């Protein structure tokens, strides 16, 4: 039987790949045989990761890019196509969060979150989809969040809520329009996972205690527990699945 999850030779682009979930996904895809282009603002970290990926027997390309700046994105995609000639899978993972209620957060901070989390997906997709249409094939995976469909009583994350809610519906809109070109668009909604973004806030003992009390599994996610959903959406196993967001959250959004 054909291995539906085999990604050998596929070209996967991952944004926000200098830390956290992006690093983990890059390694997961390399282990499945995919060649990986990694994108982030912190190029020195990307260089280190690229060498790790190549030790797994795949090709890798590190590209410095701020996904909220169109010229950066345009040049980054051009560099990737120059090396790999095509893009099979785009993982829009770059994201930032900001604590604050709507009556506290500054306009500048609001724009920073929306520009990275939402505008970044728009810009990356804008330039990658053109190549996918030419090839009549593509897999786009957007990193959403449980915060896109629920609020947080103890830690206000209003800009983040707004951005991730929009990501979920943008995923549906893109999916319905791009299906005829052989392109699927799906989302992954993580619950609480440790990252640079969460370690100093949501992983504080008092906040973690509340999360664990509410989450049916009683714990945050572990490294690697997002890999399966991402590989599924990127592979032939999900060929008839589009417009969906899977919440990998220990049951958090089921209560």
From TrEMBL:
GO terms for biological process: bile acid metabolic process; fatty acid biosynthetic process. GO terms for molecular function: oxidoreductase activity, acting on the CH-OH group of donors, NAD or NADP as acceptor; quinone binding. Keywords: Oxidoreductase. This is Gluconate 5-dehydrogenase. Belongs to the short-chain dehydrogenases/reductases (SDR) family. It comes from the Bacteria. InterPro entries: NAD(P)-bd_dom_sf, SDR_fam.
